[in-house]
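User: For my dataset I need records formatted as: sequence, then structure tokens, nothing else. Please produce one.
Assistant:
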Amino acid sequence: MLEGQLLWVCGWCGHAEPRATASPAPFPDLAPIPEGEFWMGSGEDDRWALQHEKPLRKVFLSGYTIGRTPVTNGQFADFVRATGHVAPGHWERTPPVGQNAMHPVCFVTWQDAIAYCKWLSSRTGMEYQLPTEAQWEKAARGGLEANPHPRRLFPHGNAGFNPAFGNFGGLEGRTTPVGHFPKGRSPYGCLDMAGNVSEWCLDTYFPDAFDHLPLRNPCALGPGKKVLKGGSWRSEAAHLRCSNRYFFDPSLASYGIGFRVVSTIEP
């Protein structure tokens, strides 16, 4: 280890290893997701599944790109500086500099996330938005080429979830830098899709949405609470499954909620 290098210490087993100290990229790094079908939702064989995750079905999505990690404090700080947008309140105690710049931004509302996407679009000339619930789940789960059989519980696969795969269960006591758990990557190379922060999706939450949405590029729009995916640093393992879905008021913020972005430009 280099002199002065920070250590990450696992709160579960005490294992220590060097922690990355690099500055965050100014814009989100994007992973290409090819067009095609994937398995969305939960089947009757998933003992953790709730009724609003069912049924398991094949959904077709056009190609898109999605952030490999959630948007970081450092990236969101660029937006705040450029626009004068209200900063997350906890930055007064933990400003978005140094190691904190690499943590996922949290304490942001759905409206804050939408505002960031609009700014990023104007800044880069690309069209950005929040992922639809289907886009998020395919990026976490993989397409049919990765899942010839329907069940894939977690982004890393069907092995049980433990501290090697992500930040969950309150073991770390807070968020961790994005990308810190590479063993938890999805089939498309996306990171932090299970734990760290739950993530806003574009969709409005309807408990019976899957009974009414099309099987091609589905998205539920309208007023109301918005879908969350992925589970946070305090979530139990059942809430980290790819098919798990929750909801929250779009005008409220939480220490456990962040977001990643999507560009609908074909990969």
